[in-house]
């Protein structure tokens, strides 16, 4: 249908938009103060200003004392020395990927590093041994999330299961999610993934230069279809718009240090009109889009169900189950799980596929070997999931593992928090410490993965008598009880997209005006989800 012998040549320089980076300015300025707020501050009277300053001074003093006492009291893991009051605020990376700074610290201080920011302690685990011991084996104590007063209490994200505190309320969400996304359940979504992949191939054949948008459309189409039975519009989709609006605020709020109220939770009780309480006014505006994202698609689907026009989906099926339950279970749980699936599952899958595209651009010999395997198994037609019954596709599998290892999509996972005082290797980890599993460092550990920055799928092809290295998916989706529940769906999407593109396209570098190849840079953005910064591609079967 889309033969590789279509002699087409496209130059595709692009850069992928990624969530805003955070500068130190954000950090110091971000208690929500805008220029207007500062003006207000001057005009609203000396008394208010004085009480506000006093409030902040007391807060900072308390933090400083707590910081000093904690440092003196216990044998904390090593880390960069902090300043009185601020702790390690100034050491925290802001404008470059955090994992680079954390890896530099790991080299200096070892596989467990301690930092403290404005009284909040944080531990970074840089080795497989440390994450296995703490986040996996001691998962019962390490599965909480740090409180996020700005996002959860003020911006209405309390319904977001990803950042929910470890509780019965989270457990029931997790169970509901798991039932529909566990490995046994996801083959039910093959038809949706197949249909979306055929649409992707069609879109690529019409406009290969728009491949980033097409890959995004594919991921959105799969998840919205699975969750709401909703077919994504080709352009200006209202649900994509809702998610985009909601992400604007969330991206800022989940970044540690963006809002002072996250360090001094008492600030959330300030009235919105209070000088310096600009964060409360921002939160009020953002809360609308957070709730709209969750409620609008859900209510629309309920209208379709009532009209008898809804097709099966996560929400429709779960509402049906709920109707039969006595006493009826909580509808809100289904609404919450559905709302978060698009946010958690869309960008992550897109990022994984784009990392693969970059790897293929830079490693034509890997691409050729993978394509040969697809051709040998599938022959002269388009792939589908039944092909996996004919072959285990060892090279494709190894290539997918290497893609997850080479540039992990979520290099630092999502922060966990421990609930009890703990000891590890003779170090004290105070209860309430934010614990980061450094996926990037583990997957670039040269003792497990020699030449870690090279893209080498062969390392996952087990040779006779050789011990195969750690499978990246064992850490790339996080840890313990909070491990990503959407991983099987994501890996299936990535697999069908990869084999389908290999079957129909050749990915190559672009050429400049002098006819020279442009070698794309291997650069990734900071943020929870890391993005390939720029790729230049050329589809050209002359290069085969
Ligand atoms: C390549 C794709 C993906 C990657 C790399 C990824 C990665 C992650 C990571 C690292 C976490 C945090 C785990 C931890 O705290 O230790 C997570 C959590 C989560 N992911 Fe994914 N994810 C992907 C796709 C998906 C998809 C497709 C869905 C939805 C269908 C999804 C839904 C979730 C949810 C709901 C959580 C929160 C789990 C909890 O806190 O209990 N993810 N993911």
UniProtKB/TrEMBL annotation:
<dbReference type="GO" id="GO:0004497">
    <property type="term" value="F:monooxygenase activity"/>
</dbReference>
<keyword id="KW-0812">Transmembrane</keyword>
<dbReference type="GO" id="GO:0016705">
    <property type="term" value="F:oxidoreductase activity, acting on paired donors, with incorporation or reduction of molecular oxygen"/>
</dbReference>
<dbReference type="InterPro" id="IPR017972">
    <property type="entry name" value="Cyt_P450_CS"/>
</dbReference>
<dbReference type="GO" id="GO:0020037">
    <property type="term" value="F:heme binding"/>
</dbReference>
<feature type="transmembrane region" description="Helical">
    <location>
        <begin position="46"/>
        <end position="67"/>
    </location>
</feature>
<dbReference type="InterPro" id="IPR002401">
    <property type="entry name" value="Cyt_P450_E_grp-I"/>
</dbReference>
<dbReference type="Pfam" id="PF00067">
    <property type="entry name" value="p450"/>
</dbReference>
<feature type="binding site" description="axial binding residue">
    <location>
        <position position="484"/>
    </location>
    <ligand>
        <name>heme</name>
    </ligand>
</feature>
<dbReference type="GO" id="GO:0005506">
    <property type="term" value="F:iron ion binding"/>
</dbReference>
<keyword id="KW-0408">Iron</keyword>
<dbReference type="InterPro" id="IPR050364">
    <property type="entry name" value="Cytochrome_P450_fung"/>
</dbReference>
<keyword id="KW-0472">Membrane</keyword>
<protein>
    <submittedName>
        <fullName>Cytochrome P450</fullName>
    </submittedName>
</protein>
<dbReference type="InterPro" id="IPR001128">
    <property type="entry name" value="Cyt_P450"/>
</dbReference>
<keyword id="KW-0503">Monooxygenase</keyword>
<keyword id="KW-1133">Transmembrane helix</keyword>
<keyword id="KW-0560">Oxidoreductase</keyword>
<comment type="pathway">
    <text>Secondary metabolite biosynthesis.</text>
</comment>
<keyword id="KW-0349">Heme</keyword>
<keyword id="KW-0479">Metal-binding</keyword>
<comment type="similarity">
    <text>Belongs to the cytochrome P450 family.</text>
</comment>
<dbReference type="InterPro" id="IPR036396">
    <property type="entry name" value="Cyt_P450_sf"/>
</dbReference>
């Amino acid at each position: 249908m889309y033969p590789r012998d279509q002699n087409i040549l496209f130059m595709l320089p692009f850069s992928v938009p990624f969530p805003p980076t955070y500068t130190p300015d954000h950090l110091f300025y971000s208690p929500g103060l805008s220029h207007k707020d500062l003006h207000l501050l001057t005009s609203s009277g000396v008394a208010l200003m004085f009480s506000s300053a006093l409030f902040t001074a007391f807060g900072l003093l308390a933090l400083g004392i707590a910081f000093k006492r904690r440092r003196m009291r216990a044998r904390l893991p090593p880390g960069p020395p902090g300043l009185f009051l601020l702790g390690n605020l100034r050491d925290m990376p802001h404008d470059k990927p955090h994992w680079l700074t954390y890896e530099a610290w790991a080299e200096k201080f070892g596989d467990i590093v301690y930092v403290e920011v404005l009284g909040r302690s944080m531990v970074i685990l840089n080795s497989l041994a440390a994450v296995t011991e703490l986040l996996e084996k001691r998962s019962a104590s390490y599965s909480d999330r740090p409180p996020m007063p700005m996002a959860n209490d003020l911006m209405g994200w309390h319904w977001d299961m990803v950042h929910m505190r470890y509780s019965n309320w989270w457990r029931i969400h997790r169970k509901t999610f798991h039932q529909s996304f566990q490995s046994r359940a996801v083959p039910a979504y093959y038809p949706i993934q197949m249909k979306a992949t055929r649409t992707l191939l069609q879109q690529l054949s019409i406009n290969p230069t728009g491949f980033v948008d097409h890959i995004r459309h594919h991921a959105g189409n799969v998840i919205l279809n699975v969750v709401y039975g909703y077919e994504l519009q080709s352009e200006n989709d209202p649900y994509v718009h809702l998610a985009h609006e909601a992400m604007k605020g969330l991206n800022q709020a989940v970044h540690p240090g963006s809002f002072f109220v996250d360090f001094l939770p008492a600030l959330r009780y300030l009235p919105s009109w209070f000088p310096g309480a600009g964060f409360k006014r921002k939160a009020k505006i953002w809360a609308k889009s957070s709730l709209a994202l969750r409620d609008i698609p859900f209510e629309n689907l309920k209208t379709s169900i009532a009209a008898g026009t809804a097709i099966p989906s996560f929400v429709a099926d779960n509402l049906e189950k709920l109707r039969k339950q006595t006493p009826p279970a909580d509808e809100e749980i289904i609404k919450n799980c559905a709302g978060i699936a698009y946010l958690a599952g869309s960008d992550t899958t897109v990022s994984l596929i784009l990392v693969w595209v970059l790897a293929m651009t830079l490693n034509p010999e890997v691409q050729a070997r993978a394509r040969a395997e697809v051709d040998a198994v599938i022959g002269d037609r388009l792939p589908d999931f039944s092909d996996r019954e004919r072959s285990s596709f060892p090279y494709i599998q190894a290539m997918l593992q290497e893609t997850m290892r080479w540039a992990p999509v979520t290099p630092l996972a999502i922060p966990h928090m421990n609930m009890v005082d703990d000891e590890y290797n003779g170090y004290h980890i105070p209860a309430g410490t934010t614990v980061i599993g450094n996926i990037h460092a583990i997957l670039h550990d040269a003792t497990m993965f020699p030449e870690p920055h090279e893209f080498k799928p062969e390392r996952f092809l087990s040779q006779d008598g050789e011990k195969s290295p750690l499978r990246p998916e064992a850490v790339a989706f996080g840890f313990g009880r909070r491990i990503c529940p959407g991983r099987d769906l994501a890996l299936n999407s990535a697999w069908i997209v990869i084999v389908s593109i290999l079957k129909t396209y050749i990915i190559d570098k672009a050429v400049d005006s002098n006819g020279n190849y442009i070698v794309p840079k291997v650069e990734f953005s900071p943020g929870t989800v890391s993005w390939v910064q720029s790729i230049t591609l050329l589809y050209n079967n002359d290069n085969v």
